[in-house]
Amino acid sequence: MPKAASKEDKPAAKRAVSPYNEYMKKMLPVIKQQNPNLSHQEAFKRCAESWKDAPENPKNKASA
């Protein structure tokens, strides 16, 4: 039977933020500022579409 985790166990290390998440975190406020009347969902869609051609996208770096 496995031993229950004790309170003294350290929490797991956080994973690194993906390039996509970094891009979205940076660009979503920019898109919302440029288009204040957009809903969050529509702004997120536009940001996700711009990721396809973004230089931060690792898939674009490989083909360059």
UniProtKB/TrEMBL annotation:
The lineage of its organism: Eukaryota, Rhodophyta, Bangiophyceae, Galdieriales, Galdieriaceae. Residues 42-64 have a biased composition (Basic and acidic residues). The keyword DNA-binding applies. This is HMG box domain-containing protein. Residues 13-64 bind DNA. Residues 13-64 form the HMG box domain. Keywords: DNA-binding, Nucleus. One of its GO terms (cellular component) is nucleus. It comes from Galdieria partita. One of its GO terms (molecular function) is DNA binding. Residues 34-64 are annotated as: Disordered.
